[in-house]
Every structure is written in C-alpha cells, then in structure tokens.
Structure to design on (466 residues):
C-alpha cells in the first residue's frame, strides 16, 4: 500500500509546514528527513499513526525535542511520530510520583514538583524531553545520590506495533517494563511515564568560571575532590570556547574558560548547613588557584538547578562524542587537557567531565536492563560547525580525543549521553542484550520500530561518521 492510499492518519509530507514542525530537532546538524511525519497529541492519534504505518509497510521512528537526533539512525523512508501528548504533568505529593506525558520537557516537571518540596532526577537543560532522557539512562546533577534517572521510572505507557496501548510496570508486563528501562528502545511509541520524586529542601548549585590558563591546577584539585566527595554532590568540569553571541556573558567569550558546576542536595532543612560545607570544600581550593571570572554558586530551590549549566535554550547545530572513563591519573589529566585544552587547537565548544560514582555505580535488583554505570567520569564533547569549523573537522577531532583517552576508556556508554550515531556505543552486556532482544521480538515481531533501537543495545558499533 502506498502513502497515497492511506487515509486513517493525517500524515504530513515533505515541504508542508506540518512536516517541518513534526521533524524539527534541537540539533540542527542532524535534521531527520523521513518519508512522512505526524505530530501526535493523544494516545489515539499515536495508535492511528502506528496502524497507518503498518498498513503502508513503513517503519516507524519516534522523537520529541530532537536533542538526540545526531545519535540515532537516519529516519529515511520512515514515518516519524513526534510525541507532544496533552494532559500536563500530574503530581501525587503523597506517593511522591509524577505522571508525565511524552513530549514534556524537564523544565515543566521541575516546576510542577517544586511547590510540593519534591524534585526529579532531571537533566541539566530544561528543554530536554523527559522520555528519551529517562529510558536512555539519565545522568542527573542529583545522580550520585539518586542513581541513574531510569531507576526512578515506575511505569511506562506505550503503543506497540499492533496499534494497542499497553501499561508496563512491576505488576503488568514486568518483562517489558524491565526491557524498556535502559534496553535501548524499539519497543513502541511511549505516550507517558510515571516517575518517582524525592524530597528537597534546598540545593546549593551554580557554576564558577576561570580562564583556561589555570586549567591544570583546577583540574587536579577537582579530581582530588571527586575521589572523596559525598554522594549528595554531583559536579562537572568543562573546558569551553564560547562565541560572543547573545546570552553568553562577555567575560566568558573573551577566550577559553574552565567551568566547574553542579549541585549539592539537602533533602531536609537540617541538611542545608552540610550542603554549604560540601560546596565550600570543593570551591574553596579552586578559588585559591585564581579568582573566578564569574561565580553563580548559591543556595536555591530545585528550579535553580535548571540554570546552573547554562545550556542553550534555542536549537543549535552540533557534532559530538561520548565516553565513559575510569579514574583519571596524572597522565589521564594531561591527555585530556592535551586533546581539548588551551593550545590544543580543539574546535569543540564544550568538553565535559561529569562526576560519576556514588549511587550511579550501584546495581538495583528491582531496576531495568540498565541500572548502574561502572565508571569514574562521563566525557562529552561537542561543537558547532560554524565558519571555518567544518563537520569533518569536528568528526576528526572527536576521533583525536577518543584516541588520546583510550587508556582510560571503559568501552561503555550511556545512551542518553551519546551524541554521534557513527561513534562506538555499548551499554548492555551480551546476556542483557539477548534478554532485551527476546522481549523486543515478542512485542515487535516484524521490526516496525527496529530503526529506533540504540546501536549500543546489541553490541559495540563502529561506523564511519555520516
């Protein structure tokens, strides 16, 4: 059956405003170009779109905000369903849960939960979609205390390949519920999730920026602090080359800078003093190296964590890569700075080391296919192909960084941190991948959603950059 024969769903074709709206992606360097697209706002519309695609023999792909569009397979020849489900965030303060429709962003969840003194294990950017981040692992600024964000998922609502709605939780479809949580996708179209929340009284959060000329002593002191940091603190260190554009403070656009940002959690009011002491124990030795160019660390409520990372709010093009790293010794620190630091010629706008350990490393018996991360740091690096910086130059430099950090590379990745489809990915061992594959074959025997399966769910993938 051809697309022209399909009448059940209002599919948008290339060139139409509806198509452009449905295919819009935050990463402008990787716009999806499917055969057709639809924006679904109700579970019924999702069911109709899936049934239409099956009748037309079209594979189905799914996205919401498109932050990860560069990390997934091209959508050529598919029907792309953009999920923007209606209903809004529903908070149950007694059970400490939130029901979140697919397409909702983390900013909406954080602001809905904050009046109840509750928070979620959200990402650093408020515009990131909840579902993809969660089911791909989710590395939060609360994560050393809460673990991977996927562990907070209590239930998943989805439409499967037969066009039917299913709720998967610990009691109903427990095998599917296990596979959905970190299994790598390809099970259906998620229409909503229920997640657990946790109490928060205060958060000490923010970012400090220094000239990158001080990078080595700052990196050494930060590394030493991360080895003994309490789990209430999760931080990152970033080397940044920021352009002089609106939204970037002038002192940060005058040359490369090093940033240390993050959050220290105080679950109860009586924990606030300890949170201040923890932040001071990190920042004091760093401030002794040099006076920060800009310093925003301060006590605040949960919503303040959304502002700490200063991620761009508007869509941008970027090319990047991600690794999970073992503990960095002095040689590892030198390799990192040699590849991305001042004088390296790096075209990356941001190169990040995110602190792991703590609850991130703890396996959950009740968890899903992915419930823990065995690494000391997560590396993420990305840059925009602007002006003299070409796409190929960024790909080449990603390979350079990967080679420099190879002795400390664990060989694994976290799906929600992956930035390049052509880069190596691996997050499940063979036994877990096989078990996930059996569940996927049961719910999608004809591979309707096969294009949405993360490469790292089936073993290491090595391809040429697209």
């Amino acid at each position: 059956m051809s697309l022209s024969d399909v009448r059940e769903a209002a599919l948008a074709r290339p060139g139409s405003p509806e198509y452009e709206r449905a295919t819009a992606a935050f990463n402008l360097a990787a716009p999806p170009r499917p055969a057709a697209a639809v924006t679904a706002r109700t579970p019924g519309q999702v069911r109709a779109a899936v049934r239409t695609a099956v009748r037309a023999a079209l594979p189905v792909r799914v996205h919401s905000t498109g932050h990860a569009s560069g990390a997934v397979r091209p959508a050529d020849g598919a029907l792309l369903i953009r999920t923007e489900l209606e209903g809004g965030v529903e908070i149950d303060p007694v059970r400490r849960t939130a029901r979140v429709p697919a397409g909702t962003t983390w900013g909406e969840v954080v602001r809905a939960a904050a009046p109840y003194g509750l928070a979620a294990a959200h990402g650093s950017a408020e515009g990131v979609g909840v579902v993809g981040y969660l089911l791909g692992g989710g590395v939060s600024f609360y994560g050393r205390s809460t673990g991977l964000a996927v562990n907070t998922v209590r239930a998943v609502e989805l439409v499967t390949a037969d066009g039917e709605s299913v709720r998967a939780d610990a009691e109903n479809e427990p095998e599917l519920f296990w596979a959905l949580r970190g299994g790598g996708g390809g099970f259906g179209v998620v229409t909503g999730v229920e997640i657990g929340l946790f109490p928060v009284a205060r958060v000490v959060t923010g970012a400090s920026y220094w000239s990158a000329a001080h990078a080595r002593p700052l990196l050494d002191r930060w590394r030493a602090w991360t080895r003994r940091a309490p789990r209430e603190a999760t931080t990152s260190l970033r080397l940044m080359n920021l352009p002089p554009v609106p939204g970037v403070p002038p002192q940060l656009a005058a040359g490369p800078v090093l940033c240390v940002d993050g959050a220290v959690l105080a679950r109860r009011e009586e924990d606030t003093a300890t949170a201040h002491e923890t932040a001071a124990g990190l920042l004091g030795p760093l401030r002794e190296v040099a006076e920060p160019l800009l310093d925003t660390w301060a006590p605040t409520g949960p919503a303040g964590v959304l502002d700490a990372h200063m991620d761009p709010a508007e869509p941008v093009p970027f090319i990047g890569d991600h690794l999970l790293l073992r503990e960095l010794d002095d040689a590892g620190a030198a390799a990192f700075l040699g590849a991305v630091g001042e004088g390296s010629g790096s075209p990356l706008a941001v190169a990040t080391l995110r602190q792991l350990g703590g609850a991130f490393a703890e396996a959950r018996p009740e968890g899903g296919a992915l419930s823990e991360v065995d690494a000391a740091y997560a590396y993420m690096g990305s840059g925009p192909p602007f002006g003299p910086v070409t796409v190929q130059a960024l790909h080449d430099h990603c390979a350079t960084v990967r080679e420099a950090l190879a002795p400390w590379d664990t060989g694994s990745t976290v799906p929600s941190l992956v930035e390049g489809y052509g880069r190596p990915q691996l997050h499940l061992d063979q036994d877990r991948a096989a078990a996930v594959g059996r569940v996927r074959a049961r719910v999608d025997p004809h591979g309707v959603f096969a294009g949405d399966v993360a490469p790292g769910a089936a073993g290491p993938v090595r391809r040429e950059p697209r």
